[in-house]
Amino acid sequence: MGGKKTKLSHDEMAEGVKRQELIQQHIMIAQALEMHKSMWMTDILRKRGIDMTKRYEINFKNGEVSQMAEPEPKKDESIGIKKDA
User: Fold this and answer.
1) Which residues on adjacent β-strands are paired with residue 56?
2) Spatial separation of the C-alpha atoms in residues 53 and 44, rounded to whole Å
């Protein structure tokens, strides 16, 4: 696996660091926007009297808010234990 090795110049390293910082800033901005959208939607749903303990799917194209189906509880499949009927 030993291939040819090379090093980046100081200018290349500085540019790489700046690009990585920009990427991190954009990630943080996107996360902040997602949090803001979530808080905004929570506020709207509360104003409409929707049960906030449930999960909802929101279609932003047609404005439809529908409750998501609850996942079925897992069955007890304990190892080596049989339940008598």
Assistant:
1) 67
2) 15
Whole-angstrom Cα distance, residue 70 to residue 58?
Answer: 16
CA distance 68 to 70: 6
Whole-model pTM over 0.85: no
User: Cα separations (Å) of 77 from 13, 81, 83, 85?
Assistant: 55, 8, 10, 15
Q: Scanning the structure block, which residue is given the tokens 């304990």?
A: 78
Tokens of 17: 């660091």
Are 52 and 46 in contact by the 8 Å Cβ rule? The answer is: yes
For 51-75, write each residue's pLDDT tens digit. Answer: 888 888 889 899 888 888 887 766 6
Q: Has residue 82 got a pLDDT over 90?
A: no
Contact 56, 68 (CB under 8 A): yes
